[in-house]
Write a structure and sequence with these properties.
mainly alpha; flat; 8 helices; 0% strand; single chain
């Protein structure tokens, strides 16, 4: 019985792998130099990898702190050695840029990438990149206010409709959805620890 289950699992994994391979032909296609160049320009224009700029400096800082904590008498040599090694590894940032470009090239055509780069290199595109996070925070704040208001109004309108529909019968109590009601578990005192 165990052998049968293993064969079934292996067959299922094999079938799933085949389906994934057939469903994603873009990953197996060769990407031309022109396509990759357009992707690199789009990645640079949208600053797709800027969020990862602090990875190497953060890793270097953490390594310095760890090594200095273990060997405080070697702080000077540890600092200079880690800094020197960090500078040698900085060139590997290009690997991330290439992988990002490949990811974009697999999804977007050369024309799409050229359009993306053109927009984000334009005045409005640069403004969107610089001020977009501020706008997103404001939209998020507005959505929170809207959510609370719509939930309150839904509860009020539903209460009125239930009162009208039930006319004199006891309607279910509707509380403000923004204020969570305590659950029976939350209202009960915590059990004393067993000794």
């Amino acid at each position: 019985m165990t052998l049968v289950n293993r064969v079934r699992r292996f067959s299922a994994v094999l079938a799933a792998s085949a389906m994934v391979a057939m469903a994603s032909p873009a990953f197996s296609q060769e990407i031309s130099d022109a396509h990759l160049k357009a992707a690199r320009e789009a990645v640079a224009a949208i600053r797709a990898t800027d969020a990862f700029d602090n990875i190497l400096p953060s890793a270097a800082g953490a390594l310095k702190a760890q090594l200095i904590q273990k060997n405080p008498d070697l702080q000077e040599i540890i600092t200079s050695t880690v800094d020197e090694t960090t500078l040698k590894l900085a060139g590997r940032r290009a690997d991330l840029e290439k992988e990002a470009a490949l990811a974009y090239a697999r999804v977007f055509s050369v024309e799409d990438l050229n359009g993306i780069a053109a927009f984000y290199n334009s005045g409005p595109g640069k403004k969107l990149l610089s001020d977009g996070p501020i706008v997103a925070r404001e939209v998020d704040k507005a959505a929170g206010i809207w959510q609370r208001g719509i939930a309150r109004d839904l509860a009020e309108e539903t209460g009125k409709a239930l009162d009208k529909a039930l006319e004199g019968k006891s309607a279910p109590a509707i509380t403000d959805p923004a204020t969570p009601t305590p659950t029976p578990d939350a209202a009960a005192p915590a059990p004393a620890p067993a000794n």
